[in-house]
Amino acid sequence: MENETRYLLEMKHIVKKFGPIVALSNGYVSAERGKVTALVGGNGAGKSTLIKILSGAVPADDGEILFNGQPVTIRNVRDALRIGIKTIYQDLALIDPFTVTENLFVGREITYDGPFKFLKILNKKAMTNYAASEVKRMHLNIPSVSARVRTMSGGQRQAIACARALMGNEPSVLVLDEPTAALGVREAGEIIEMIKKYRDDGAAIILISHNMRTVFDLADEIVVLRLGEAVCKVRRKDVTEEDIVGLITGAIEKLDEDRDLLRV
Question: Fewer CB atoms near the end CB (10 Å): N or C, the chain?
Answer without folding.
Answer: C
